[in-house]
Each structure stands twice: as C-alpha cells, then as structure tokens.
C-alpha cells in the first residue's frame, strides 16, 4: 500500500503542473500573478437612466468571459456618493465614482463626514459633464434666473447633489432659501420638467446622455442649457484641479447645431475595495484593458476605457489598488 506521505507528494506535484498550465492558458492572469479564486462581487453603478448601469453590465460580461471564476453583478444605486458610502460599509466590492468624489472621500471632505480609505483606483474611462437644462417657456436663461425655482439635482446620493449645490450657491443663491432642490432620477427628469414639477434638471453624465437626448428629440431648440458664469467657473476650477472645462458638442442634441461653451466635467473611474485580492483586481484590470474593442462594440463609452486613459483621473489623485498597480506597471503605464 502506498504511503500517505507519497500520495500527498504526488498530489502536490500534479496540482503544481495543472496550475502551471492554467497560468499559461487563455483567461489566465499572468506568469507573475496567479489566477483569482472563484468569487462573486457587486459593482455599484447608478440609476437605470444613467450611463453607468449599462456600462457596468457590459464590463461584467467581458470580465466573466475572460475569467469565468469572477461573477460580477451590476447593481442599481444612487450614483457616485451612494457608491462610495456603500464601499465604506463594505457592501460592494467594485464601484464607479468620479475622481473628484473619490478624492473627497479619501480626504474626508464634504459631502463625506469622515475619511473613506478602504478602496483604491483600478482604471479610468470617460468624462462626465455638467448638463443643466430647462425649457424656453420657463423664462429661465441663466443660473441667476433660478432664484425661487425647483431644481432637480438627480437621484439622492448622485454626484449632481453636491456639484449642483456648489455651482448654484457660487452664483449667490443659497439652497433652501433661494431655491428648492428636488431629487429625481435621470430617466424621470424630462417628464418632471415637461409636467412642470421642476423648473430645471441637472444631470452630470457622459455625452450624449440618454435623458437629454430624450427631451431634445421632442423639444429641440426649446431646450435651454444653463452653464456657469465663466468667472465663477474659473474660480471654482482653481480650487478644484480635478475639474476641467468642456463644450457641449454641436450637433450632439437635436436643435443645437453649434458647440455650447462653458460646461465642465470630471473623470469616471473604477474603484475596488481593498478587501479584494490583488489577483482578482489584476485580472479585472487586465480583462478590461486588453478587450477594449469588445467593450466599445457593446457600449459606446468603452472607447474611452483604454490603456492610454487608464491612469488619468487616478494618478496623483487617489492611490491605486495594488492589483491594478501591478498590471499597470507591468504594461509600462505607471
């Protein structure tokens, strides 16, 4: 009868051989990083009408195709601030956030009342931009005209809550005293505006945004975009280097053939809970950056989630997750 010691030795050798084939095969991590163990995780995205939710589904599918042991579910949430609080409470393993809000969370700046440091950056993608709109028949032509009005800042917990308040108050209109905030999901904004339940709607999202396409497809040039006063915006950007000016491209929305200057934006980043193993985050980073064409064919925003853009909005703003950092350094991107 063979000894138990000999059996264990042969079993260990067999396991090492099998592992070696796995590392070199399709869907493996790399020769330097072992494949991740089987696990399930949640990816915090946004409301259904936002762009993050379908993007999350597309990314989850690509990651699962490359690493079947990683099961990722895109979860509907209130957006970036909600996502960061879910991350703080270890309720999600992955999340989308803006680089601005991630920076504030890591540093304990408002709207966060304490530091949230249990996450790191994975990779970067598309910009998301200020789009505050109303209808001509409201008589509102500027942010100064919002006094006494009801303004949707997006769903509770979304990035629009904080940035909307900051921008409008910088124009001398105090929230609660001079105007009333409403918290309506992106997909419901056009209907609320048409029905007169709000006077203006803010969405901070990528170009083009589905809800803005919705209302401009029927209202066309009767949709009025309200951008910050240039001097006010310049002062705010000086204090917030993670904000960048941008124009709403002409022809993007029906009835608006010319560029609309004066908007601004931040960068969407993917973050991972520090509790996730380096192997899992390495695999996620690898799957996304090495399958960009497939992501782009599934979701138009995928075109910005490239190796070239992988570190923008994260580098110098928040730390990388060690697993992502390992892949990015291996590829010469850091």
Supply database-style keywords.
single chain, 334 residues, alpha/beta, ten-stranded mixed β-sheet, 11 helices
Characterise this structure.
The structure is a single chain. The protein is an alpha/beta fold and 334 residues long. Strands 1, 2, 3, 4, 5, 6, 7, 8, 9 and 10 form a ten-stranded mixed sheet that branches. α2 packs across α9 and α9 packs across α11. The termini are far apart.
**Mean pLDDT over the residues:** 90
Poorly predicted sequence stretches spanning 5 or more consecutive residues:
1-26
Q: What is the rounded Rg?
A: 23 Å
Number of helices: 11
Overall outline: globular
Distance between the termini: 56 Å
Structural class comes to alpha/beta
User: Strand tally, please?
Assistant: 10
Strand residue content: 15-25%
- Helical content stands at 25-40%
> How do the helices and strands follow one another from N- to C-terminus?
HEHEHEHEEHEHEHEHEEHHH
Reported for the largest beta sheet, the result is: 10 strands, mixed
